[in-house]
Structure formats: C-alpha cells, structure tokens
Amino acid sequence: MSNDPIQPWEDSQATPLIRFENVTKRFGDFTAVDNLTLDIYEKEFFALLGASGCGKTTLMRMLAGFEQPTEGRITLGGQDIAPIPVNKRDINMMFQSYALFPHLTVADNIAFGLKRSDMPASEIAGRVEEMLKMVQLSQLAKRKPHQISGGQRQRVALARSLAKNPKVLLLDEPLAALDKKLRQETQFELMDIQEKLGTTFMIVTHDQEEAMTVASRVAVMNAGVIKQIATPDAIYERPNSAYVADFIGEVNLITGKIASGTEKSCKIAWGGGSITAQPRRKLAKGTEVRYAIRPEKIMISAKKPAATNAVRGKVHDIAYLGNISTYHVQTETGQIIKAQLANAQRLSRRSFTWEDPVWLSWTDTAGIVLTE
Amino acid sequence: MRRALVISIPYLWLIALFLIPFGIVLKISLSDPQVSIPPYTPHLDLSAGWAGIKDFFSKLDFENFIWLTEDDLYWKAYLSSLRIAFTSTVLTLMVGFPIAYGMAQAPKEWQPTLMMLIILPFWTSFLIRVYAWMGILSTEGFLNQFLLWTGLIGAPLQIINTDWAVFIAIVYTYLPFMVLPIYATLEKLDPSYTEAALDLGCSRAQAFWSVTIPLSKSGVIAGCFLVFIPVVGEFVIPSLLGGSKTLMIGKVLWDEFFSNRDWPVASAVAVVLLLILIIPIVLFQKQQERTQEAES
C-alpha cells in the first residue's frame, strides 16, 4: 500500500492529532483499559476492533468525555482534554442506537447541535440543507425519526454528528443495526464522506470485515490492551500474535518447534512433518512457535505437487459457501487443516469430495511464524 | 363462541357496575323529591302495563338541572372544584417530577426499594392518613409546634380549614399517581439521548429542558390526568381539612344527599359532574392511544 496517500504513522516527523498516553480506566476492580498508548493522526479513518468487553467502547467514551481516565492522559491537538467537559470538546459521536431525538424532525435533529453553537441563526438552515444533501435525505427533512427507515436514520445520525464540523468523529458500531447488503453499501459511503470532509474518524466495531473495509489503520484490542495496530492488509497478512491471526479471518494455527534456521529461512518440526517458512528474525533451535497460514493460501491437488511445503491427507468435511468452498483436510497424524478453493466450476464438476486422498501445498512465504 | 364469552366479561362488568348504576342515577335526577322511601317519585309500576310506563315517563323532567343553573352555589362549586383540582395537579407535578426523575437516575438496585417507598402509604387507609394530617396541620399540631420551637413564627399559623390544608393533603395523597407514570417514562428513556444532547453541546440543564422534559411528556400528561380527574370529585379531603370557604362539588353533593335528603338534585349534580369529567377522560384516552401508536 505504498501508493496510499495518507500514511502519517510512517512519518516520524508527523504529530498525532489524538494521543492516549498510558491511559488506564478501572471500574471498581475491573480494568477496562490497561496502560494503553495510542496515536491517531489527522484525516485518519481509525478502527478499534475487538470482541465485546475488550475496552474499545470505554476508550471511545473517554475520548468523547463521558468517562474520565483513572490514570494517564489524552491529548487532542497537543492539549490535555481532561478538564474540557463533553459539551465543549471538538469531538462528536454517532451513537450505536443513533439516539435521534424522537420529538424533533430530521432537520431539527441536524440543527440541534448548531443551535447550541456560536453559529449565527441565519446560517443554520443553510448548513442543515448542506448536511441533508450530503446524506441524500433532503426530501425527508420534515419527517420524524420513526417515519423513516433504519438506513435513513443511520444517515441522519451521521449528518447530525458531522453538522458542527468536529475535529474528530467517533462512530460506535455505526452499522450494526443494518442488514448485510445495506451495511456494505454504507461502508463505502462512509469512506467517501470521510475522504471528502477530511475529518478524523474513529470507528468502534466488533465486525472485522467492516473494520478492514473502511479503516486506514486497525487496532485489535483484547482485555484492555491493544494487540496490534496496522493497516488492514498488514493485520491480515502479518499478524504479530496468534490472537490477532485467529481473530481476523480464518487461519490454521500449527504448533511446532524450530528444527533449524537462519535469518532468512527456517524449518519447523510439527506432528505432520516439517514446514519451511520465512521467519522475521533468527529463531533459536527448539523455540516453540505457532505457524499461521490462511486457508486461501493452501492449494489442494490430487498428485504430489512440487511445492516447498506439502502434506498428505484426506477430505474430512467440505463447507460450501457459494463463491468458495472450505475443505477440512485431515492429515495422516489426525490434525485438521483448512484449505479454501474458489469455486471456479459448477458444483457438479468439483474435483474433490469427501474421503478423497489429497495433497495440501503452500510456498515458504505463504505463512507466518509467530512466537507470541 | 368462546371468544364471545371472553369478550363479554368486561362488557358485563361495565354494564352491571357502571351503565346500570348510571341509568338509575340519571333516572333519579329526572324525578321529583318526595317524603317517602325511597325519597323521590315517580316509581315504575309495571303491573299497570303500557299505561304505567307511559305515565312514568311523562312524570320525568329536567327541573333539577334547571335548578342547578338557577342557584349560583352549584356552578361556583363546579368552578371551584376545577380550580382546586388544577392548582393541586400543578403542585403535585412540581413535587412529583423531581421525585420520579431522582428515582430513574438512582442506581438500578435501589429502584425497586424507592418504588416500594412510593407505594407504601397505600398500605394505610386513606381516611386515617387524612386524619393524621389534621393532627399535623391543626393550630396546636406538630407543624405549628415545630415552627414555634424553631422561632420562625411567633404565633401559630392557620393552615387547617384553609385551601392550603386541602392542597397539602391532595399533593400528599395523589403523589404516587403522578410519580409512577412519570417514572415509568423516564426509566424507559435511553440514556444515550441525554449523552447525545451533551455531545452536541448542551449543558446538563439544557439537555434536561430540551430532551428529557419533551421525551417524558406522555408520562407527565398521564400523571396529570390521573390526579386531576379524581380530585375534581374529591370529598373527604375538603370536608375534613378545608374550611367553610373551601367549596367543592363533592361536598355539595354530600350535603344535598345526606343533609337535605334531596336525592334528585344530588343525582343531577352527579350527572353534571360526570359530563364535565368526560372531557378530560376522553382527552386522556386520546393521549394514551397516541403514546401507544408512537411506541409501536
């Protein structure tokens, strides 16, 4: 992704817009966020990804001002925001429930924040019109929230939270209430709007597909700690731990020991033989490692292929997903390895079926060696 | 058939306990007083056949209703009842809303206890509680003794036998009817509405006025009707705590019925009271329907 125009995190000179510095948040005995440090740059579309209860929502609520950190500090544009109350922060939030005021019309909902700002009353109507146009809802301005569809409500919530032109927009599971088709369309709209406005967006989600689609960088959180921050492709292709590899997408995790190795190449001994891989650094012989390989990077063939890594097994199960099929192949030592094939041909002409003996093969660059 | 049976039960209940008694009261209100048992005439004499029925209906008239318009006591009593009911509804709202709001904001585990405390007074008879207020509000009562002891006043205040005693007792007695519907509305309110208002630049007070108050409207309206409607016809509180100047239609009705033994005029007073109350009752029903529609 070297052609990506916005990569300020690569630039050591760039100053981040938002900084979490050793932030800890405790609720009684429970530590929701644990000594977390995080930089977010201007114009980023930053995604916080994690299972429910991992602390991602708490992190966002601290930025919005609904919670105060127990320890550490948060700065916005270099300024500590702890003393600034929620209504004075240049940060707006789009709520998971949208929280559209049911007693106000769509236009009045969008104008709500503007009326409490220092914008002259004469300019408010124009701004509301502009926001309505942005989300393509001009014709619904006079409706009440219960008179429009879920997707339209989502757009109103977005327009309302962007109306004051905040420095940062926080999105709390913004698309969770929409069905899958609409969600995918809306993801692209969100990206377009973010790109057009240049506002820094921070999205909290448990949906990895959503995070990968919209975000410039993704932070994977677990138990109050960030496990990895990287671009979506790096998170997927080069996870730094078994947790991240397992959390994002499907993966085969093979436990083994380093049999021999240099900085460039190593051999991992496991139950089913030996795997040749490229580690990120030289690993001592005998080191316990986990080898992570994505199912779609594994080939299936009937004859022994001429690849670096090849394992024999038989088809144990097939999950047909329409565009692809996932084959669960049982190796001779009993392990199950998942491999994915695109269904380029009609189902009736499928090459492999249950109980067929097959070869699995992959290159030495396909997988990744993890020590965590 | 079974469905018809199930539906018919509430209708039978309404017919037996509301429509038939109302028919009897309406009939008495059209009769003339008479010293006899029962103290009015005519009586329906079915043994005389068709002629008896015709004779019975020909003797009914609107004399008592005309009488209600001729003596200014009645319309003054109606107006005074409406005024007292209105004032005490506003007072009950002013006391009840903060209580309901406080309950809804309290930690979840306290809320059942607070609810219990609101309902607890109902465990004692209404009459006994009103008598207790006589002990508190009378010239030598606890309140005056306390105020004299603190030195805030030099001479006892005259509270009992004034409208103030009536207002205090009404607010106290009807408070749960105000608090419970408002609490139910506030408790259901998604806290993210307030958070969204704060996020969009409101202060706490602005968020309260521009979001919490409008969104609790249905509870406030329900509570106001639940207080206003019964207070218009309230009899016990004004007769025990109100003075001779506290004029309420419930008291007038009691006097007509028991002191004057003029059942027909008392019935006419009751019928007119019911007609007056139908207006707020219909408004209340409309409001409830609208709320249900908005929620579905």
Question: How would you explain this protein's 3D organization?
Answer:
The complex is a heterodimer of chains A (372) and B (296). Chain A is an alpha+beta fold and 372 residues long. Chain A has 2 domains: 8-245, Rossmann fold, CATH 3.40.50; 252-370, Beta Barrel (OB fold (Dihydrolipoamide Acetyltransferase, E2P)), CATH 2.40.50.140. In chain A, 22% of the residues lie in helices and 34% in strands. Chain A is built from 8 helices and 20 strands. In chain A, strands 6-7-8-3-9-10 form a 6-stranded mixed sheet, sandwiched between helices. In chain A, strands 13-12-11-14-20 form a 5-stranded antiparallel sheet. A 5-stranded antiparallel sheet of chain A has the order 15-19-16-17-18, with no helix packed on it. The longest helix of chain A is centred in the middle third of the chain and has 18 residues, at 180-197. Chain A is globular and about 75 Å long. By secondary structure, chain B is an all-alpha fold. Chain B has one domain (74-295): Orthogonal Bundle (MetI-like fold), CATH 1.10.3720.10. Chain B has helices at residues 2-29, 50-58, 63-70, 72-105, 111-119, 126-137, 142-150, 163-188, 191-199, 204-215, 217-232, 236-241, 249-259, 263-295; strands at residues 32-33, 40-41. Chain B has a two-stranded antiparallel sheet with strand order 1-2. In chain B, a hairpin with a 6-residue loop joins β1 (32-33) and β2 (40-41).
